[in-house]
Hints:
By secondary structure, the protein is of the alpha/beta class. It has helices at residues 15-27, 67-77, 91-96, 98-119, 158-177, 199-208, 228-241, 258-272, 302-308, 316-329, 331-337, 341-349; strands spanning 5-10, 31-37, 57-61, 81-84, 128-134, 181-186, 188-190, 213-216, 222-227, 247-250, 255-257, 284-287. The chain has twelve helices and twelve strands.
Amino acid sequence: MHSMKTILITGGAGFIGSHVVRLFVNKYPAYTIVNLDKLTYAGNLENLKDIEQLPNYIFEKADIVDAEAMRELFKKYHFDGVIHLAAESHVDRSILNPLEFIMTNVVGTVNLLNAAKEAWAENTDGKLFYHVSTDEVYGSLGETGFFTETTAYDPRSPYSASKASSDHFVRAYENTYGLPVVISNCSNNYGSYQFPEKLIPLFINNIKNNKPLPVYGKGDYTRDWLFVEDHAAAIDVIYHEGKHGETYNIGGFNEWQNIDLIHLLCKIMDRKLSRVEGTSAQLITYVKDRPGHDKRYAIDATKLNTELGWKPSLQFEEGLEKTVDWYLENEEWLQHVTSGEYLNYYKKQYDTV
Ligand code: NAD
Ligand code: TYD
């Protein structure tokens, strides 16, 4: 039986955050889960329709860049823990507007750290600030090797530079003020409720609508893909059993070159849409590369497996199939999120496609 706790989850209306909120609200009825989200273009309360009526769930609309609002929230709820996911998260958007990333990802994180430090000044027993980060802070790999928890930081995009900076602040608050913290760095996630500007949902949506599939460069970049519900499960384990002050890498040892993944996706979509095999792949269009595009990410998640026993639950092909089914079955969700601001972004980013 878990004791009563009040946990702040930031960014809970986003892709990964909504899965974490759902898991915690359902699994821990004795906890009160407060979801703080600004509801930017990426935040969508429709992601949480199935749990929003539950008595242990509360939503607070707020901006983490507003320091006073963060202090007030900590006074109002007396949080025992924070799981911090709120962020600007898309590399391409960070190239268009780096300052927004510095404000949310760096200043916003420091505001939350300050609010936690003040609220927990008397006693840090049972308290924890869990910062959710990315493998992109480690930079880019060549053909071989993996990122481990001791790999030196080498961020190369405005997004990864802002996340790296926030990680440094979290560690600095532990070292300087004794704040109890834990950090995890995860590889690329895929699954339901991902905003369709990231590779997999974007391409599912475009294939469905017979629109071009804009592959950056030669498509020979490599990413390491993890099913989002496995990430949420890892966050649960690390929150409850992780050693304070430690970092855990999260990944499924599942590397794919973009073009191979895209061909697999096209094949699944042909089958689901009853198209002749090879039809969807004809939509592949090579476009101008992303500036400073990181070549390869690959996570070594041995520490998390050996110390805390976590491992992914799904093979990639199975997860991708489930993901495709979800987007095809949730047409209305897709329509709602692909209207409005998203269309302006799409035009700017893919002007020539
Ligand atoms: P997302 O963009 O889908 O969601 C981010 C959420 O944060 C949205 O709900 C948005 O409204 C909210 N938000 C943004 N700015 C805010 C602000 N100023 N105040 C309050 N809320 C704000 O992102 P995601 O893919 O779910 O990523 C969540 C976290 O996980 C991020 O910290 C990201 O760096 C990290 N991460 C993501 C991945 C991935 O593959 N998506 C991989 C590893 C780590
Ligand atoms: P993305 O989902 O943006 O994640 P990240 O850049 O954080 O890894 O992109 C995954 C990979 O797919 C990355 O190598 C860039 C590539 N990509 C394309 O080729 N075309 C696209 O339209 C997008 C969005 C991404």
